[in-house]
Write a structure and sequence with these properties.
The complex is a heterodimer of chains A (147) and B (178). Chain A has 147 residues and is α+β, with helices and mostly antiparallel strands. Chain A has five helices and six strands; from the N terminus they run αααββαββαββ. Chain A has two domains: 44 residues, no CATH class; 74 residues, Alpha-Beta Plaits. A four-stranded antiparallel β-sheet of chain A has the order 3-4-2-5, with helices on one face. The chains are: A alpha+beta (147), B alpha+beta (178). Chains A and B meet through helix 1, helix 2, helix 3, strand 1 and strand 2 of A and helix 2, helix 3, strand 1, helix 4 and strand 3 of B.
């Protein structure tokens, strides 16, 4: 990745024009050709520096359920519980974090109602109390990752 | 939830990414039987009503050298949370900022922010800066560094093929996003 790639990433984190020739438009502001922009994006995706070039959806608007939840898992049972939790296909991410509440996972379900069902199943299976912390309000962030 | 069958098809067609061709919206339209103009109009409408939060690149923080991240949580008086949430969200190294419920007495925190950095020291430095800049000295907070990532699915929102009811499986790029 060179400085031009960094400029492209910084620019495109902020958005993308929805027009007939969007790459040409972005390329013009970066003073490169459309072809170069497309090739560089292809490379950044191939190298895995970008996971995707596309939309971020508002999951609830699509009809699904989404939440963040935490567990306190005793050290000696950690691997077992991680396996039990990850076994649910609705668990999208799961991180171990340094806190008394040491397991944090994101749940994404096909319907909003399914969230509570899955959390109850996780409590029953793991024997750990679930702390459910669904989003109440989102504060705007630029989502720019300056490189 | 208000999405027409056509919009569901459109959402499914672009979820994996936009085609890297000169006229991407013509190509997407061709896949689902819309003209280029109709595709552009529908995507603009989905952006305007918030169904699509934004369109652009999704970076892999870790691969870009941002190897540490901390979910930093704050216990903010309810009557200040809107004001301070907006302030924290406005700082450039904060990638996510959400209000969430407390679970008293175990969990008093009601504002979650995700802070990335090249390493732990950089993350902690950013948090100090944030406290200074947003006037958070009196606010109780904790920093939850990640130790291990067990599972991270790729971005995938809709499993259903066209014409099926929409199925949202949002796998956000970072856990704070849920």
């Amino acid at each position: 990745m060179d400085t031009r790639d960094a400029t492209i990433i910084n620019q495109l984190q902020g958005g993308f024009p929805i027009t007939e020739r969007p790459y040409a438009e972005v390329a013009k502001t970066l003073e490169i050709t459309e072809k170069e922009l497309i090739e560089r994006l292809e490379n950044l995706l191939a190298e895995g520096l970008l996971s995707r070039f596309g939309p971020m959806y508002h999951a609830e608007r699509l009809g699904g359920g989404l939440t963040l939840a935490a567990l306190h898992v005793p050290d000696e049972g950690f691997d077992r519980v991680a396996e039990q939790v990850n076994h649910f296909p609705e668990v999208a991410h799961n991180y171990q974090r340094e806190h008394h509440l040491n397991m944090w996972f994101v749940l994404a379900t096909e319907t909003a109602e399914r969230i509570d069902e899955v959390l109850t199943e996780i409590e029953q299976k793991t024997g750990c109390r679930v702390y459910n912390v669904p989003k109440i309000e989102e504060f705007f962030v630029g989502l720019r990752f300056e490189l | 939830m208000g999405l027409t069958a056509r919009d569901q098809q459109l959402v499914a067609a672009i979820q994996g990414g936009l085609p890297l061709v000169s006229r991407p919206f013509a190509e997407i339209g061709a896949r689902i039987g819309l003209s280029e103009n109709e595709t552009i109009e529908r995507i603009q409408a989905l952006l305007a009503d918030g169904t699509i939060k934004r369109l652009g690149v999704v970076v892999r923080h870790h691969e870009l050298g941002y190897r540490a991240n901390a979910m930093t949580v704050w216990n903010i008086p309810d009557d200040q949370v809107d004001e301070l949430g907006r302030r924290i969200g406005g700082v450039n190294f904060v990638t996510l900022c959400y209000r969430r419920p407390r679970h008293l007495p175990d969990w008093p925190y009601n504002l979650f922010s995700m802070i990335h950095g090249q390493n732990r020291a950089a993350v902690l430095h950013n948090i100090e800066h944030l406290i200074e800049r947003c006037g958070l000295k009196a606010i109780q907070h904790e920093v939850l560094f990640s130790r291990q990532r067990f599972k991270q699915c790729g971005a995938h929102y809709i499993d259903a093929p066209p014409h099926q009811p929409v199925v949202a499986r949002m796998h956000s790029p970072s856990e704070g996003q849920a």
